Amino acid sequence: MIDLDEILQGLPHLFPFRMVDRILDIEKGKKAIALKNVSIDEPYFLGHFPEEPVMPWVLILEAMAQTGGLAFQSSFESEEEGVPVLARIEEFRLKRRVTPGDQIIIEAEILRVFSNLAKVKVLAKVGGESVAEGMFVLARGPLTPPSPLGGEGKGEG
Question: What's the angle, vertex CA 146, arms to CA 143 and CA 148, rounded to 5?
């Protein structure tokens, strides 16, 4: 049986940039379904917009990319194969606002894997209604991301 919590721990993102709260389902190498609870306590709501808070579209896109990455990563033979990174946004359409209290269900389907890339179709819904959809290309990135200080990861170099 697949341990969904263990798979979620494979995401390299941590708070406040982990945009996936739970994996609902994963079909190895084919699809992933994840959940994002949108809370008024999220730090971005302090300035976007205080009187009428709206989840920034780039963070909805990020949640979709992270879910697509989980689907792509499930096709890897081992963790040493790297982590998925967003390489290209081929299509993206925002259909309605996402506000505090919403629960986003994100579905990512792997359409094609070629070399170290995957084409992924992603759909985000709130209450069964589509809020965003897109087509992304994900790539296998290095296991440890490069450090802004130079060298490979964690300030080495």
Answer: 155
